[in-house]
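Justification of computing resources. Each target in the renewal requires a structure prediction run like the one illustrated here; the chain below, 107 residues long, is used simply to show the kind of job we budget for.
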Amino acid sequence: MKIAISSVGESLDADIAEVFGRCPYFIIVDIEKGKIKEMEIVKNPSDNQQSGAGMTAAKLVAEKGVSVVIAKNVGPRALDVLRQFNIEIIEADGKISKALQGFIEKN
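Resulting structure tokens:
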């Protein structure tokens, strides 16, 4: 299962970004049997985009094959795109590592 987390930094110790579409990075992890199999840091090209940042960001994570997004706040247009790709949205804040561990334990 691939999970994208909106991040302010380039590690699992970073905080979840305030806004999905304008986060500086996405940390994409591939979870297998409750463990992180692979991790990719992706610079969000839409973080300074004038408009449509959420839609661009949503398309980016969809193209990466993500099935779950963990974010603090997802705007309505990004939400529409994520739903079109059947991507589950989990609301969380704080440290990425803690939110990710909580998700893994529940699944």
